[in-house]
Amino acid sequence: MMDALQEKCDRKIEMLTKRHLERKLDLQKEQENRKLANADNERIDYFETVFNEKKQFIEDAINEAHNLDIDKLALHFNNISRDILILQKYLAASNIFLRGYDIKVYQQALQNLTNQARDLEDQLLPKKKFGFKNKKSKKANIENSINCLINGKGNKKLDEVDTCMIAKVNYLANSNGFSERINTNLALSKSEMLKKDIVLSKLSNCRVKLFGTPSTLHMNFLRDCFVFCGPVSTSIFAENCENCTFVIACQQLRLHSSKNVNIYLHVTSRAIMEDCNRIFIAPYNLEYDNIEEDFKESGLDRRINNWTSIDDFNWLKVDKKSPNWDVLEDAERIVEWSNFH
């Protein structure tokens, strides 16, 4: 009898102990959930603060572009693109604790920034019209248009002239390059490039030698071409290029809508690519007489080369490298260019 009572008592104590432990565990779990919720709220608040600060910084930079000289705009818009990409990556890394609706709102804010920057860049940074043979006549036509604006209507004043048109005149006067050539070896001398904007357009199966220090280099619609360029003082823009090899040095590179391109690169800040694939990168290895002087004149530091720092606008995952570009294998690299140019 006593054994039965003792057994019943032991079972009751065991049941009470078990119930007590379950309640304790439930309480601990509830406390942990509250802590996690508070932590998520803190992270969301922190993210919102940082995002808005960065967004405001970029908006201020976009507005600042109105006050810059035309020769500083290319680098300025490069920096804006870089800052937008950094903010995109910050958003992508924070998706783990953000709500779906919030992610869409922030993504739309980033898209608005991108559109504002691109629209303003198109407005303030005139794009070269191709066809260099008629460069002087085009410049004269634009100057005549300005004169008509000034003199054609008696009430027009100089400060009412379209400032973008004036900027185009200055741009034409400070650019040089080649357009619509096939199966040709092309070259510019150092004096022809000094402080100039160089434009290469609609070239097919050409080899271009640019040994000197251009201000900027623009390349558009190049097919099966080799381009060898000394240090560019600011930026290189390349778009719509295919099956090409570029041996280039610059402060910043922007590559758009291109594929099957090998780039031997020296870049002191970063390279940015968008809508590109099968891009292969190797370190810059061009050598020619007086190249050290050209590096000094360009302001580029030859000791600093961030050739693997590639930001891909189409790939925002921070934990994995973009599949749209890769390092060119050592066995596939060309180490001596003297027979190519």
UniProtKB/TrEMBL annotation:
All residue ranges annotated as the C-CAP/cofactor C-like domain in the record: 166-315
Keywords: Acetylation, Chaperone, Cytoplasm
Lineage top rank: taxon: Eukaryota
Keyword Ribonucleoprotein attributed: no
Entry keyword Chaperone: yes
UniProt GO BP: post-chaperonin tubulin folding pathway; tubulin complex assembly
Family from the record: Belongs to the TBCC family.
Assembly and interaction partners: Supercomplex made of cofactors A to E. Cofactors A and D function by capturing and stabilizing tubulin in a quasi-native conformation. Cofactor E binds to the cofactor D-tubulin complex; interaction with cofactor C then causes the release of tubulin polypeptides that are committed to the native state.
Protein name: C-CAP/cofactor C-like domain-containing protein
Protein species of origin: Oryctes borbonicus
